[in-house]
Each structure stands twice: as structure tokens, then as C-alpha cells.
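User: If you would, consider this record:
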Amino acid sequence: MGANNYTAYNTSNGSLAADNEASALDTGTVVISSGGTAESATIPEGARLIRLQSDRNFWYNFNTTAVVPTGDDVSGSAIFLPAGEKRYVQVKSSDTLSAISASTGGILNLVFWT
């Protein structure tokens, strides 16, 4: 990373210590107001890494609408994020995130780094 870029982690002796949210470019949330209805978020300008974390099971995708699978699905139309799991994904600031949950009221937390 260049001198002006932030790091997504605080490290101690080369090991992962914690997310470095203090140096995040931006944060956000996606709230599912109606179960089974996709919501979207725009990736901020300059973002290159996103952390996704949720209190419910979510499916997500970039630059297309995410869907809750109704059966076996290997099409890539949505990527599964189990409740409580953190996921780090490289992104482009021109991307749009689409997220969906089968249940109402789910909150997907987003943290962006350059």
C-alpha cells in the first residue's frame, strides 16, 4: 500500500490484532425493512476494501440485485454471509452493493478502507 493509504488492521509483531476502524474511509449500514426485498448501498469514492458483518443471515452481490436462493443455486447470483461472520471483500468505488435477508429488520454493517 502507498504512503497515503490506510491499513485495515492493527498489527502487533506481524499478527492480526484488531480491525482498524479508526482509519476507515467510511462506515455504513444496510437495514432490511422488508424480508425478501433487496436493499443497496453505494461504495464510497476511493474505497478498495469492505468489511461486511451482520446480525442475520444475508446474501449479497455487487452491481446486480442479490436474491435469496429458493433451492440449489450455483449461479453466483448471491453470496451467503452467515449471521455474526465478518467478511472482507476487495471492491471498486464504482461498485454498488446489493444485500438481502429472508427476515425483516436485519442490519448489515459496512466498513470501508482505501
